[in-house]
Amino acid sequence: MANSDLTYRQLLDKIKTNLAPSLAEDWPELPAVSSEGIYLYTEDGRQIMDFTSGIGVTNLGHNHPKVLNAAIEQMKKFSHSAVGITVHEPLLRLTEILPTVMPDGMDMFFFGNSGSEAVEGAIKMARYVTGRPGIIAFTGSFHGRTYGAVSVTSVKSKYRNHYEPLVPGIYFADYANPFRCPTGNSPQDAVDWALDSVEKIFNHYIPADQVAAMLIEPIQGEGGYIVPPSGFLEGLRRLCDEHGILLIFDEVQSGFGRTGEMFAAQTLGVNPDIMSVAKGIANGFPLSAVASSRDLMSRWSAGSHGTTFGGNPVACAAAIAVQKVFAEEMILENARQMGEIFMSGLKEIQKKHDFIGDVRGKGLMVAMEIVKPDKDKTPDGDKAFAILNHALERDLLGYMAGRTGNVIRFIPPLIVNQSEIEKSLDILEVSTEKV
Questions:
Q1: Is residue 40 helix, strand or coil?
Q2: Can you give the pTM of this predicted structure?
């Protein structure tokens, strides 16, 4: 086998010649060789607190033994079965378990492999069952990188650059962001501004009766961990009901315990018609789902959508184990408690630095927005990046978010304990002082 005698360090040196820049050139490119719980272990002997959870995937921590054992036992039986050619037990059991933890009415599923697939499936389903062409998404959104998913993504123009023309029939409304509302500083100002932008779309671009769905992250992820004020999602729900529009929640990042409830829909008290879920569903094994009511999804006829790998038996077995862990180990309660401690600590750090413009989040979906100390709240991505690098030097891994990378997001595993949270706050205190 060619180059089979290369060491790991030699292979690392070849990453930029062997992988596409769109995959290889990121930050921080840690040479991780193993992981356990909240920690990554690197080739050079470091133990790093992973407050990214693989970007919201390993919500139960790396290599949770119950999830890992479930996957291993399934692999001993078989590792692939195309749904429809065969039907395997883990898939069927998962369809019985998920409705017990999802928002009311989510009781039928189409399984895929990734968040982008789940978003694309939701859009296809909405257009198919309504017979309408229009999709309203929201500025600052991130829904994925495949063609349909990037067509409804607007967090950064570079994600869309050179790919035009994208999927037609997509319209963007404003997201209710109280920190950056141009009409006022109150939560209600942000709600009114955002809902008015939806009405503007109806009035100027596409009539409401031609809109199939509104697609929204109930808490924006890559857009900056923006938690909408009370009244925004409720207003969208009201508009959808009034005009026969389907409300789609993209809970790829906010789902499976991240916000302190199983889903942000439950945290924020608004139910969608369709959900896209992935990431934490199987704690690291590739699985996603479009979820809806049996009445609605039954109208998505046989053959109108399909998959080869979706609903993989190993991933489904892992997903079943994930739900058992949630039920047995008080994961949601821990997420809420640790989230409160973490948020409180970050707000104490904020008091010492005028460049920390905002601290926000729900559960263990938490962020700091870094700005220049001016009246315009000018984003300061350079300073945010410096803080991230200082923290990583002290073995704490966070990640950037927001259009300019000026939001530092923290996505720790939901099993994180108080001493680990306090250690991370000590690191961040030093790191913010450094800049």
A1: strand
A2: 0.97
Residue 2 lies in a domain: no
Dist CA 357 CA 369 (whole Å): 6
Residue type, 199: E
Domain that residue 178 falls in: 66-328
Tens-place pLDDT, residues 360-419 = 999 999 999 999 989 999 999 999 999 999 999 999 999 999 999 999 999 999 999 999
Transcribe 377-395 into DSSP letters. --B-HHHHHHHHHHHHHTT
* C-alpha to C-alpha distance for 343 and 364, rounded to whole angstroms: 9
In the β-sheet with 32-36, what is the strand arrangement from edge to edge?
32-36, 39-42, 47-50, 396-397
Q: What count of Cα atoms within 13 Å lies in the side-chain half-sphere of residue 221?
A: 22
pLDDT computed for residue 243 by the predictor: 98
Residue 37: DSSP 8-state:
B
The answer to whether the beta carbons of residues 362 and 339 sit under 8 Å apart is yes
Of 309, 328, 347, the residue that ends a domain is 328
Give the domain-ending residue among 307, 328, 349: 328
Give how far the C-alpha of residue 175 lies from the chain's centroid of Cα atoms, to the nearest Å.
Answer: 16
Reported as a single tens digit per residue, the pLDDT across 246-292 is 999 999 999 999 999 999 999 999 999 999 999 999 999 999 999 99
